[in-house]
Design a protein that fits this description.
By secondary structure, this protein is an alpha/beta fold. The protein has a single domain, classed as HUPs (Rossmann fold). It is built from 7 helices and 11 strands. The longest helix has 17 residues. The structure holds flavin-adenine dinucleotide (FAD).
Length: 263
């Protein structure tokens, strides 16, 4: 049987994150949670690949507190076959380095697989480091910003990746990790039957000991990042308007652009 592993993150359902000035951490109280929007495209793509291949299981996993189980149930309701919750007090305070280590240990515990899918970035942490981080712990290639799967077989894929200048076409053999962007597909909505089945599904909780994650690589101890200060950037100013069609106005415009380091 072929296997696809999708990593999802539960994130606050808000565009305006608030930071606790004392602890420098995110204020989550009172904010509803959703599956990170980019992860919905990763789930959808995995389900489409499964439908194409047949004889394939889609495993969805997340690292988070017990309530992250809710996100996994939503993924199951969409059609994922199995869900795993990676949860342990020891995982708290993990930065992206430690998080990707923990997720890579979960992959090793799951066993063989064909493709790992993640979102391009999480809408709260926003670093876009975890996908490539997992790949590097596992020593497999990663393809970021995937916008189209031109061809996908169990051991080969031809992929369009979004770039600043257009897109790359990449051919890849063997296992790999890909990160999904919103151009990739249109995520489905869960069926009533899917929702009912997801409610009853058993979701195993895996802790550090179970996946063989070493204490020195997880939590605060395994996290090289230190958040020195967290703050909201000041709101954007209105900018400078330069109107007119004479030489003087053009000169003024150029001077303003230079002063703002835009040319
Ligand atoms: C010093 C420090 C301490 C921190 N302490 C905590 C803490 O105690 N508790 C806490 O919740 N966060 C904590 N964080 C935040 C945590 O490290 C990040 O949220 C996490 O590593 C993911 O990074 P990101 O949000 O930038 O994800 P990105 O790299 O932007 O995410 C890319 C993709 O990776 C996958 N992904 C990301 N995170 C997860 C996950 N947890 N499970 C499954 N898939 C995932 C998703 O597919 C996602 O779309 C801490 C961060 C720092 C720097």
């Amino acid at each position: 049987m072929k296997r696809l592993i999708v990593f999802i993150k539960q994130v606050p359902d808000t565009a305006e994150l608030r930071i606790d000035p004392k602890t420098n951490t995110m204020i989550r109280t009172g904010v509803p949670s959703i599956i990170n929007p980019f992860d919905m495209y990763a789930i959808e793509e995995a389900l489409r690949i499964k439908e194409k291949w047949g004889d394939t299981e889609v495993i969805v996993a997340t690292m988070g507190p017990p309530q992250a189980e809710e996100a996994l149930r939503e993924a199951l309701s969409l059609g994922c076959d199995k869900a795993i919750l990676l949860t342990d007090r020891k995982f708290a305070a993990s930065d992206t380095f430690a998080t990707s280590y923990i997720l890579s240990k979960a992959v090793e515990k799951i066993g063989d697989y064909n493709i790992i899918l993640t979102g391009k970035q999480a809408t709260d942490g926003d670093t876009a480091q975890v996908g490539p981080g997992i790949a590097s712990w596992l020593n497999i290639p990663s393809i970021t910003y995937v916008k189209k799967m031109i061809e996908v077989k169990s051991d080969y894929a031809k992929i369009e990746r979004l770039m600043d200048y257009g897109y790359d076409i990449i051919e890849i053999k063997g296992k790999f990790l890909m990160t999904a962007i919103k151009d990739l597909n249109e995520p489905r909505i869960p069926s009533f039957r899917g929702k009912m089945a997801a409610k009853k599904a058993e979701i195993p909780n895996w802790d550090a000991a179970y996946i063989g994650a070493e204490d020195k690589n997880i939590g605060f101890l395994g996290s090289p990042t230190r958040v020195v200060k967290a703050f909201s950037p000041p709101p954007k100013q209105g900018g400078i308007k330069t109107e007119g069609d004479d030489i003087e106005t053009a000169k003024k415009l150029i001077a303003n652009l230079k002063e703002s380091h835009l040319i």
